[in-house]
């Protein structure tokens, strides 16, 4: 009997050894993959899924995950079958689905036709852009799909340019532009011929879209070590944080901010000569590293040759566009006055794996909660009212309405600035910077806002002077809609149309918006048309990209609803227009 | 001589007694295995019924946690099949003679530990891994392998 037991033990031991050998042989080898490339040791998100199922699922539902995709029936969101045509500046675009493939046919004014295949898509929330592959090079097509309004649009409708004659103004190379922030570890592999215009790209990315590697960096060592259950058990048992992976929540505030700022803070190489490395070998930055070692954020003073970035900022240096949130936060007192290593950063309010995918934010952080975590003194309603001078439960007492006003444009939408400041109405008069007070009090003048600021917060504004310029005695919403530059006008149109915190009587706002339909910037007309259509159902929504005659007809039809105010408003608008400065802005999207 | 004459009778008595003890031992070992097998089948089939109910009523705690779902299914499948295995072991024991006590214990404990490990590891677990109770599963597997090997050798001997 003893012999039988011994034999059994030996055979069992043999089985264990065989199993152990097979498991050992099946262990993954990740370290060293893509050695020598910029994306060495990066893994694709499918490999992370094996252990991080919940995090993978919460990432997969975000727009980050779908930022760049191969064009397939499940990824193409534009209408390629029914409402699939656009005519703009005389060029006719026809988008068609042919089985599993998608095409865009452009018929030029002279009748020539060009057929493009849609190979990749960019974006999945507000607009979806399309990329074609021509001779091995990826090129962004000039027609995109507006997902919010379910219609095709020329990219002229999104970028801040006046109506032009160039339909292809925004057709651009994907390999050298979009690729860097819409994917993980872009490597354009640019080959420069003696003639600079003949440059070619052999672009590679670690993964299409903004996937795990964008925020967590290289993960080969982590994944390889974590493939052992004993290592995983040890990490959990000892709560060991040395897991050889970047977790932005566990970085210092500054480094965490850099992870997001890498894309949400437009940048230029540092030094500029590094551009060659970036365009050939690829983006050198890895999450967790010091971004300033490779890049410096674009500011008002930044220039590349003769090209100045100044128009992307308000006169006081605050960003006017999205993808500059990093710069905004760096200038904010919440950041500069914070304790080094523990300051405000993106993750103070935003969550990458939780909450609403629109804005990547938890519902409670759309309230005052995030601000009150530091500024507890305003938690009591009475203290809040004493601070804001508004009823505590009103929009005027929401922290972000005053300290993060909606003065930033990006992807057909208006956004809160991330330069967290104390509102100062006088900046509108002195530097043409929109102010938070006038975001709600559109029917009041800037001088009224200055006077109220002096009355309500005398300690801060006692020495602020009202403007002697007569235009600042006029209601600021309409004044900005006609006197401001294109971006100011677009913001005003959006606010008058009810996009902001305040809602206005359509009978007061709509005549102004009707007049704005004659603006020579499509994007201003876009917001005016949205505002009109939202409050008035008797007429169809004006086509902001229609031909001049179509737009004139819509303009007249909308004015026919408000005949009594037309003369006064058009005269006033004319006076304000005469003082305006038009500023074209290359929106980096 | 009387003494000597009595010897064979005593030997016969002892032999018969030993044989009876052996038979009783085999019978009790087999009945222990069989009893545990039937109880196991009843219990783990009940778990299967519960899982069907969770699926039928779309219980998110089960359906949306793939790790838990896999572990519970493993617990149900192993538990039930091990019940059948114990019944087979009982039959073999009855048919081919007594199993070493260690092998019988290994089979009986291993067939409990393994599905129990899966079940408990599925109840409480971190993301991407089973809970700590999963250590019971390989331990149970080793015991079952040992028991099965011992049973195989015993059958071969006979």
Structural commentary:
The complex is a heterodimer of chains A (589) and B (158). By secondary structure, chain A is α+β, with helices and mostly antiparallel strands. Among the domains of chain A are: 68-181; 255-379, no CATH class; 408-577, no CATH class. In chain A, 34% of the residues lie in helices and 12% in strands. Chain A has 24 helices and 19 strands. In chain A, strands 1, 6, 7, 8, 9, 10 and 11 form a seven-stranded antiparallel beta sheet that branches. In chain A, strand 3 (91-98) and strand 4 form a beta hairpin. The relative contact order of chain A is 0.08. Chain B has 158 residues and is mainly alpha-helical. Chain B has a single domain, classed as Four Helix Bundle (Hemerythrin (Met), subunit A) (Up-down Bundle). The two termini of chain B are 39 Å apart. Classes of the chains: A alpha+beta (589), B mainly alpha (158).
Oligomer category: heterodimer
Mean pLDDT of chain B comes to 87
Distance between the termini of chain B: 39 Å
Structural class call of chain A reads alpha+beta
Number of strands of chain A: 19
Please report the first level of CATH classification, the CATH class of chain B. Answer: Mainly Alpha
């Amino acid at each position: 009997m003893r012999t039988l037991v011994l034999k059994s033990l030996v055979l069992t031991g043999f089985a264990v050894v065989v199993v152990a050998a097979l498991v050992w042989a099946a262990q993954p080898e990740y370290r060293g993959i893509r050695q020598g490339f910029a994306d060495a040791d990066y893994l694709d998100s499918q490999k992370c899924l094996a252990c991080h199922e919940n995090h993978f699922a919460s990432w997969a539902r975000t727009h980050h995950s779908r930022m760049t995709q191969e064009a397939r029936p499940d990824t193409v969101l534009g209408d390629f079958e029914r409402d699939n045509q656009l005519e703009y500046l005389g060029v006719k675009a026809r988008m068609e689905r042919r089985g599993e493939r998608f095409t865009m046919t452009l018929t030029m004014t002279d009748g020539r036709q060009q057929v493009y295949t849609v190979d990749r898509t960019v974006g999945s929330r507000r607009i979806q852009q399309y990329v074609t592959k021509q001779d091995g090079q990826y090129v962004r097509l000039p027609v995109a799909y507006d997902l919010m309004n379910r219609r095709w649009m020329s990219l002229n409708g999104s970028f801040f340019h006046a109506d032009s004659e160039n339909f292809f103004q925004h057709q651009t190379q994907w390999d050298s532009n979009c690729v860097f922030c819409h994917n993980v570890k872009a490597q354009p592999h640019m080959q420069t011929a003696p003639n600079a215009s003949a440059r070619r790209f052999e672009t590679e990315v670690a993964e299409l879209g903004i996937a795990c590697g964008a925020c967590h960096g290289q993960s080969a060592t982590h994944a390889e070590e974590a493939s052992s259950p004993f290592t995983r058990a040890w990490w959990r048992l000892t709560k060991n944080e040395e897991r050889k992976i970047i977790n932005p929540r566990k970085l210092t505030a500054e480094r965490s901010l850099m992870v997001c700022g890498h894309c949400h803070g437009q940048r230029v190489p540092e030094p500029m000569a590094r551009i060659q490395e970036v365009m050939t070998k690829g983006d050198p930055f890895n999450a967790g590293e010091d971004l300033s070692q490779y890049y410096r954020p674009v500011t008002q003073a930044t220039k590349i040759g003769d090209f100045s970035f100044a128009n992307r900022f308000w006169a006081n240096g605050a960003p006017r566009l999205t993808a500059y949130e990093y710069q905004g936060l760096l200038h904010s007192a919440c950041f500069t006055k914070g304790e080094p290593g523990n300051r405000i950063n993106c993750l103070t309010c935003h969550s990458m794996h939780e909450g609403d995918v629109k804005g990547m934010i938890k519902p409670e952080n759309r309230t005052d909660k995030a601000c009150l975590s530091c500024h507890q003194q305003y938690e009591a309603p009475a203290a809040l009212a004493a601070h804001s001078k508004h009823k505590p439960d009103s929009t005027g007492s929401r922290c972000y309405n005053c300290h993060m006003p909606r003065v930033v444009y990006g992807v057909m939408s208006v956004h809160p600035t991330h330069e967290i400041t104390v509102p100062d109405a006088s900046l509108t008069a002195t530097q043409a910077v929109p102010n938070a007070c006038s975001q709600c009090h559109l029917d009041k003048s800037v001088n009224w806002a200055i006077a109220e600021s002096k009355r309500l917060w005398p300690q801060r504004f006692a020495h602020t002077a009202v403007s002697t310029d007569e235009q600042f005695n006029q209601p600021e919403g309409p004044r900005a809609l006609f006197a401001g530059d294109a971006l100011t006008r677009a913001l005003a149109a959006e606010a008058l149309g009810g996009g902001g915190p305040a809602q206005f009587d359509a009978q007061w706002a709509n005549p102004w918006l009707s007049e704005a339909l004659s603006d020579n910037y499509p994007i201003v007309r876009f917001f005016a048309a949205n505002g009109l259509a939202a409050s008035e159902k008797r007429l169809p929504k004006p086509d902001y990209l229609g031909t001049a005659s179509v737009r004139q007809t819509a303009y007249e039809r909308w004015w026919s609803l408000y005949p009594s105010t037309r003369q006064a408003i058009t005269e006033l608008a004319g006076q304000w227009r005469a003082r305006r400065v038009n500023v074209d802005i290359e929106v980096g999207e | 001589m009387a003494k000597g004459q009595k010897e064979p009778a005593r030997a016969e008595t002892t032999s018969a007694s030993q044989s009876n003890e052996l038979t009783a031992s085999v019978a009790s070992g087999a009945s222990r295995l069989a009893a545990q097998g039937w109880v196991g089948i009843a219990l783990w089939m009940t778990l299967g019924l519960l899982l069907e109910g969770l699926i039928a009523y779309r219980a998110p705690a089960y359906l949306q946690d793939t790790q838990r779902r896999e572990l519970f299914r493993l617990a149900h499948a192993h538990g039930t099949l091990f019940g059948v295995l114990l019944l087979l072991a009982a039959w073999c024991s009855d048919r081919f003679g007594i199993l070493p006590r260690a092998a019988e214990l290994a089979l009986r404990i291993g067939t409990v530990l393994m599905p129990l490990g899966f079940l408990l590891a599925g109840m409480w677990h971190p993301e991407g891994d089973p809970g700590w109770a999963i250590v019971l599963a390989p331990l149970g597997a080793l015991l079952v392998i040992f028991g099965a090997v011992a049973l195989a050798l015993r059958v071969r001997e006979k």
